[in-house]
Amino acid sequence: MGIDNSNRIPSMDAWLAEAKAAPDAGKVGMYLTHNGVVRETAKAQVRRGEQDTQSVTGMVFSYDEDKVSAAIEATRALDGIYYVRVWLNQGHLAVGDDIMYVLIGGDIRPHVVDALQFLVETIKTKCVLETELY
User: Fold this and answer.
1) Which residues pair with 98 in a beta bridge?
2) Burial 71-95 (b: 16+ CB within 10 A, else e)
3) Is the per-residue pLDDT at 5 higher than 80?
4) Alpha helices of 1-134 — where are they, by DSSP H?
5) Mean pLDDT, all residues of the chain
6) Is there a contact between 100 and 89 (Cβ–Cβ < 8 Å)?
7) CB atoms < 10 A from the CB of 51, how many?
8) Mean pLDDT on 34-60
């Protein structure tokens, strides 16, 4: 799998069922998911500790599909990783809306944890544009 381009918010139950039916499912000992959502606390406050920030009311979110595809392929190439799936929202999002879902399947916990961290970090820093609205 790769990028899920549907406009529907994915079902983790359905994704896990598909992952467990995939050809390499017998090699997978762990699945991890990530669900990023729009929060009302500004990035400047949670990442840099700035205190004089306004509350976020929403976000404009977009992504570069080619860059996300490349990040997924790089993640699949990591040791012990056998399943990767990503869904990204787009457009004007409100506080509480889903930004992304990621599912990683791999052989052992350290490989899967590292792969999830690598993929989410790559997507957030190299593949998307997020503009907080106040």
Assistant:
1) 37
2) bbeebbebebbbbbbbbbbeeebee
3) no
4) 12-20, 43-48, 65-76, 109-122
5) 96
6) yes
7) 6
8) 94
| Two structure tokens written together for 5 | 């381009």
Q: Which of 18, 108, 13, 17 is nearest to 2 (CA)?
A: 18
Q: Are 128 and 88 in contact (CB under 8 A)?
A: yes
Rg of the Cα atoms in the chain: 16
Long-range own/partner contacts, residues 114-122 (CB < 8 A, 24 or more apart)? 114/78, 115/75, 115/78, 115/80, 115/81, 115/84, 116/32, 116/34, 118/74, 118/75, 118/78, 119/71, 119/72, 119/75, 119/84, 119/86, 120/34, 120/36, 122/71, 122/74, 122/75
Residues 95 and 61: their CA atoms lie apart, in Å, by 12
Q: What gap in Å lies between CA 91 and CA 134, rounded to an integer? A: 16
Residue type, 6: S
